[in-house]
Design goal:
Largest sheet: 5 strands, antiparallel
Number of helices: 2
Strand content: 35-45%
CATH topology of the largest domain: Jelly Rolls
Order of helices and strands: HEEEEEEEEEEEEHEEEEEE
Strand order of the largest sheet: 1-4-9-6-7
Shape: globular
Number of domains: 2
CATH architecture of the largest domain: Sandwich
CATH superfamily of the largest domain: Galactose-binding domain-like
Helix content: under 10%
Length: 349
């Protein structure tokens, strides 16, 4: 049966609402945010941490701050019940009552790859609006803020939203007009930056609801979470989609969400084994589980069992977007040698 006939029959039987006619509801990939439900946490496995500025915590979410040691954060930190339909959230707790200075900023962000938002047409006369939606909960009430920025922060759109009741999940939607000026990357670079403020000084705060050529990361007058000792802030269900209407949160299978995250960060376990003379270098070629966004940087994690290998013999060469090579040097002659290595690969934006 043709789709038009099915649609006509369903409408005639009153089985859907008018909102169901929004074509974006049926468009896979409409949510440009990855891990918006905070399900994937490859680095910390749900543990709460005191984040280092510019480091990623829950997958795809980076902590941005001008001062250190002001918050703790983690997946499901605080052990509150998530909103209906969700099992995870990003939790933040303030570690002190810090008075934000004019040039200070605290918050977390996600960079959307240019390939994933090129169709918005930002920077042209055909720029489309977007709608940001999310569930949020805080021990504080009042006006909160964030922003959308381009690569280089030369174009900014500060936005504001209100938390009305303390310690209660509330659903928020914010529609943002498309920017017809500025430079917006459409390649594998930073296409746009979605930032949620936890305390932003006047230098980086601007009037909510309009585009600016300044580096604004929040709305003027927004509540400072870091300004109250023990204050909490939780968020989940973050969605950024084309159009002026917020649709229901796009749910992807766990494996799909993990694979999307692994384009930017993944952990590989590599084992070098061989039989040979002392000083013999053994190489192990390992494919990435998915092609990475760019040639990744590598950091060695834990070292597992070692037999007849030099303790400092580990080297790693990232060959391309799909493979890496690990080598280790034998320390024993005529013996089977093995070394288990754990590597973290990052191609974050």
């Amino acid at each position: 049966m043709a789709l038009t006939q099915v649609t006509t029959d369903v409408i005639a039987n009153n089985t859907i609402s008018s909102s169901d006619l929004n074509p974006n509801i049926y468009f896979p990939g409409r949510n440009r945010i990855i891990n918006g439900a905070m399900e994937i946490d490859q680095r910390n496995a749900g543990a709460s941490v005191t984040p280092v500025p510019l480091e990623y915590q829950i997958d795809r979410w980076r902590y941005l701050a001008s001062q250190t040691s002001k918050i703790t954060m983690g997946q499901n930190q605080g052990s509150v019940t998530p909103p209906t339909g969700f099992t995870n959230y990003l939790g933040v707790t303030s570690s002190s009552a810090y008075s934000v200075l004019a040039a200070d900023f605290f918050g977390y962000q996600q960079f959307v790859e240019g390939f994933n938002c090129a169709d918005l047409g930002w920077g042209t006369a055909n720029a489309q609006p977007v709608t940001v939606s999310f569930w949020v909960r805080s021990s504080l009430t009042g006006t909160f803020g964030g922003s959308i920025q381009n690569n280089g922060s030369s174009r900014s759109y500060p936005f504001a939203y209100t938390i009305s009741v303390a310690n209660t999940w509330e659903y928020k939607t914010i529609t943002i007009s498309g920017d017809t000026t500025g430079t917006w990357l459409t390649n594998n670079g930073r296409g746009l930056n979605l930032f949620f403020g936890l305390g932003v000084g006047s230098t980086h705060s601007g009037t909510a609801g309009s585009w600016s050529g300044s580096d604004f990361r929040s709305a003027t007058g927004a509540t400072s979470v870091v300004g109250t000792n023990g204050a909490t802030f939780y968020i989940t269900g973050v969605q950024l989609e084309a159009g002026s209407v917020a649709t229901s949160f796009e749910r992807r299978q766990y494996g799909q969400e993990l694979a999307l995250c692994q384009r930017y960060f993944q952990i590989a376990n590599m084992c070098c084994t061989d039989y040979g003379p002392s000083g013999y270098s053994v190489e192990q070629r390992t494919p990435f589980v998915t092609e990475m966004r760019a040639s990744p940087t590598a950091a060695q994690g834990s070292t597992g069992s070692t037999l007849h290998f030099n303790s400092s013999s580990n080297t790693l060469t990232v060959a391309d977007l799909r493979h890496a090579y690990a080598t280790a040097t034998s320390a024993s002659t005529g013996s089977y040698s093995s070394r288990f290595l754990n590597w973290q690969f990052s191609a974050e934006l």
